[in-house]
Write a structure and sequence with these properties.
This protein is mainly β and about 900 residues long. It contains 16 helices and 37 strands. The protein is globular.
Length: about 900
């Protein structure tokens, strides 16, 4: 702890020291020839259609991160993790045991949802992912953009607009806009080979050593096309990432008494499960009873009383009563487990879940090209293809559970969710100048798909005939956007820029059904169960569940192929009344084929109070159209409840059930945003300050409800459930309003002295999101008692407290000749776990009693050396002091499997990461 404080304190003193030095340097006349000050500010194009300007002169806050230069020294290699490290207003953390979300990290800006930030590539709208985040993670119920489908090595820089901009850019830009600017380099081949992994005592389920090995190859090549500025630039990236293992040691019962007898029989060539299919109808019941009597005697750790009870039970029913787990305490079952593990040569860790980052193989290709066709016009294209295969673990299927068919899996099994993610994008256009007008006409296409391949699992109802691998179907989202943009500058006052344009967007969402065995339940004859035929059971009469364990496939009734269209028109006028007053006004009208139209506006201004001191403010309205996924996504399962075949699951907004319940159609979220801030530069010290406060109110925010159980809904709603044979349902609905308040502060400094180059950056984000007003319950589900189902306490935590309300970073880059040193400290504020548990140990669980996950500081350190102009080496550590989140209380660990929370987004649970990177260019 002392070392951590020393590093942090030295970092702060370093920053303050160079600031003081910078203040004084103008007076050191003797050294003026040896000190060079870089007064060239970074320029931004995001947030304005008037062209580039310095970021301190922008009327709205924009961060600029030079990825091309920093990729040499940064420990992180993908876009989401780079931004999570360098941008305090941005949060993205690798998830675990969350199905498809394990392979796509939800990204949030200013504490708002993953679907409330718009992503652009080269200024063009990027398509979102096909995945709907439906599991217990921050961003539940949202659809974000897959940032990891684009190789970071293809980027020149990243711009982050931290202000509502829907009036300028359209739907989703409530929290802000991220623009990924692609490389335009020519005349060289550049590349890097990285190898790293997690060197930590918690590796390999807390046994230590090294895991999470990561190998990555990045190549970039560009060349000129013609002699008038044409170029092409192409990037290839391949990543091979191993999983990390952060489970503790399985502490719950694994085997029961019947499992022990079953194993002794199996050792003798007798599979007890082969003697029956439905235990209630066992023709050779006496043979089964005899075998149990015979092989129970081989279980040495059974007490004499238990042995006597077994031998005295002469029917299957009597044996069930003797051997059922309910007859034994947890301690007795754990005793059976420990003895049986020793007998089978196993340990409790053999039954751990795979908790940590998923296994991932990722291959990406991206191209950026531009060709002049005349002195004033050029055609351009950019786009890419990526294929990502991920494998993540589910919950262990223990032998003692009825969902595990021990005839095939006597030791249980750990099912795995395999995900193939394909991403395709292609943009093409022409832009130029015609009689003073800048014109840009483009078409941008994108498609993202998820295909689920469930492995090392089974359809328990098929018993011995079950496959071990299933195609569970998939999701696909496609988007095509046509843009036509005009802009022109007029020499009036200090300049007026007029811009207007239009957009047409087509979207398609598709759910593909899985193979039959991935979703169906089968009867004893191997036919699909019809609700009346006899189902297979285990020894204790529990009916065996159908579908692929861990992830049921999409059923034919879930399959959809839906599309929609939207058209938009916008106008944007920027007035430079004087050299000290700038005003920007924008308005946008959009019409969607599925929910109607919306009109939004924005007004922003920058006042130059002094040559280096600006005040800026902005106000706007905004919107987010319900994603087509949220309208049509549905996934259901069939269960046999109270002698009825009933459906449970997520029902789409256009479903028959939603209609019978009078659930309103999804409509757009609407927002009102305001921000005020200042920028201050001290050129003599190469020092820049920016601070911005902001407020965003979002009305009719779309959420995914919890399950409305038939028994808990009003009578008329129960009648609708009965009509369609449904027992429980959840929906996407415009259920809540929220308010977000926050402050962003950024301080940047650089210095040049005695051959050294020093860059210092400090940034902090403070934000708070809160649900306000009443829950918008509706239709037949409108009831005060159901409001906690619409927006549950867990959902509230995911929205308000699972992401840090305070996040700050302090970084330094020191360069001298061919060497560079990078040091960054990042502060992650406290978060709240979503589980409702007895935190204070008083024996009473309050409805809002949650564990607090404490604040932490993560230190990154790396060093780079350029041996020649063509070859360099970087060595570094991410999370130098091997910091982990606060450990879960026992009630949240699932038998010591989740040592750390999996429902928050802080900095992850992988621990220290060490790496080496070879950089080259020719």
């Amino acid at each position: 702890m002392k070392n951590k404080k020393t590093i942090l304190s030295a970092s702060v003193l370093f920053f303050l020291g160079v600031f003081t030095y910078g203040q004084e340097k103008d007076s050191i006349k003797a050294n003026k020839d040896t000190i060079k000050t870089n007064n060239v500010e970074e320029v931004v194009v995001l947030g304005s259609r008037a062209g580039a300007r310095s970021k301190t002169d922008s009327p709205v806050p924009v961060d600029v991160f030079n990825v091309k230069e920093s990729s040499v020294i940064l420990p992180q290699t993908n876009i989401g993790q780079i931004l999570n490290a360098v941008a305090p207003s941005f949060t993205s953390t690798i998830q675990t045991n969350s199905d498809g979300t394990d392979h796509l990290d939800p990204a949030q800006l200013r504490g708002l949802g993953p679907d409330q930030v718009l992503v652009l590539v080269n200024g063009k709208r990027r398509h979102t992912s096909a995945l709907v985040n439906v599991n217990g993670t921050p961003g539940r119920g949202t659809v974000g953009t897959d940032l990891n489908a684009i190789p970071s090595f293809a980027l020149n820089r990243i711009e982050v607009l931290r202000d509502g901009a829907a009036a300028q850019y359209g739907s989703d830009a409530i929290a802000g806009v991220i623009n990924l600017d692609l490389k335009r380099d020519t005349g060289k081949l550049a590349g890097q080979i990285s190898y790293g992994g997690n060197l930590t005592p918690t590796a390999n389920d807390h046994t230590g050593d090294f895991d999470g090995q990561n190998i990555q190859l990045d190549l970039n090549y560009g060349n000129k096309i013609g002699t008038k500025g044409g170029f092409f630039n192409i990037t290839w990236s391949s990543q091979f990432r191993n999983p990390t293992y952060r489970a503790g040691t399985e502490s719950g019962p694994i085997y029961n008494a019947y499992n022990a007898i079953e194993q002794r029989a199996l050792n003798d060539g007798v599979n007890l499960s082969s003697l029956f299919t439905n235990i209630n109808n066992t023709p050779n019941s006496q043979q089964l009873v005899n075998y149990i009597h015979q092989y129970a005697q081989n279980v040495s750790y059974f007490s004499q009383d238990l042995q006597n009870s077994i031998q005295g039970a002469n029917t299957i029913s009597a044996l069930q009563n003797v051997l059922k787990s309910a007859n034994f305490t947890r301690d007795q079952l754990n005793y059976f487990t420990d003895q049986e593990l020793a007998y089978r040569g196993q340990t409790r860790k053999d039954f751990n879940m795979q908790v940590g980052q998923s296994k991932l193989n990722n291959h990406q290709l991206f191209v950026n090209a531009e060709i002049p066709v005349s002195d004033n016009w050029k055609v351009y294209t950019f786009g890419g293809y990526s294929i990502r295969h991920g494998t993540s673990g589910g919950f262990y299927r223990r032998p003692s559970e009825s969902r595990t068919f021990t005839g095939l899996y006597p030791n249980g099994y750990l099912p795995q969710i395999g995900t193939d993610i394909q991403d395709i994008s292609l943009a093409a256009g022409i832009k130029g100048n015609w009689e003073g007008w800048n014109i840009d006409f483009s078409n941008t296409y994108g498609q993202n798909s998820f295909t689920y391949n469930i492995q090392n699992t089974g359809n328990t109802s098929l018993r011995f005939a079950s496959p071990r691998e299933f195609n569970a179907g998939g999701l696909r989202f496609s988007q095509n956007t046509i843009n036509l943009d005009f802009s022109k500058k007029y020499d009036v006052w200090e300049g007026i820029n007029v811009a207007f344009g239009g957009e047409h967007r087509y979207e398609n969402f598709k759910i593909t059904q899985g193979e039959e065995a991935s979703y169906a339940t089968y009867d004893v004859s191997g036919n699909v169960w019809n609700g009346n035929s006899v189902r297979p059971t285990d020894f204790f009469k529990n009916e065996l569940p159908g579908g692929s364990q861990v992830f049921n496939g999409f059923k034919p009734g879930n399959a959809v192929d839906k599309n929609r269209q939207s058209v938009a028109a916008y106008a944007d006028v920027e007035f430079n009344f004087t050299n000290w007053l700038l005003v920007d006004a924008a308005a946008r009208y959009e019409n969607y084929s599925d929910f109607g139209s919306t009109f939004n506006y924005k007004l922003a201004s920058r006042i130059k109070v002094a040559p280096n001191f600006n005040v800026r403010f902005a106000g706007s309205t905004g919107f987010r159209a319900p994603s087509i996924h949220q309208i049509y996504y549905n996934v259901t399962s069939t269960l046999f409840t109270n002698n009825q075949l009933l459906e449970v699951g997520t029902f789409s907004n256009d479903s028959q059930l939603a209609g019978l319940l009078d659930m309103p159609k999804l409509k757009q979220e609407t927002s009102k945003s305001a921000s005020v801030g200042f920028t201050y530069r001290i050129p003599s010290a190469s020092l820049t300050f920016t601070a911005d406060g902001y407020f965003t109110r979002i009305d009719n925010r779309i959420i995914l409800t919890d399950q409305f159980l038939k028994a808990n809904v009003p009578q008329k709603a129960q009648e609708a459930y009965d009509q369609l044979g449904i027992n429980a349902a959840q929906f996407f609905t415009n259920a809540i309003d929220t308010e977000t308040k926050g402050v962003d502060v950024v301080i940047s400094h650089n210095a040049r002295f005695s051959g050294f180059k020093l860059d210092n950056n400090f940034a902090i984000n403070l934000n708070k999101t809160k649900q306000v007003g009443d829950i918008h319950s509706a239709g037949l589900l409108q009831s005060p008692q159901l409001e906690k189902v619409y927006f549950s306490e867990k959902s509230r935590v995911y929205l308000e407290e699972a992401v840090p309300r305070v996040k700050a970073s302090l970084s330094h880059t020191l360069s001298w000749k061919n060497a560079s040193l990078y040091l960054r400290n990042t502060y992650f504020g406290k978060v709240t776990g979503a589980d409702i548990i007895d935190v204070n140990g008083d024996g009473i669980i309050d409805f809002n009693e949650h564990q607090q996950i404490g604040d932490k500081i993560i230190t990154d350190l790396s060093a780079a050396y350029q041996f020649t102009k063509n070859v360099g080496l970087t060595l570094g550590v991410n999370n130098l002091f091997d910091i982990y989140p606060t450990k879960n209380l026992t009630a949240s660990t699932n038998n010591d499997q989740f040592i750390y929370s999996r429902s928050t987004s802080q900095f992850g649970q992988n621990g220290r990461y060490v790496f080496a990177r070879l950089n080259f260019n020719f």
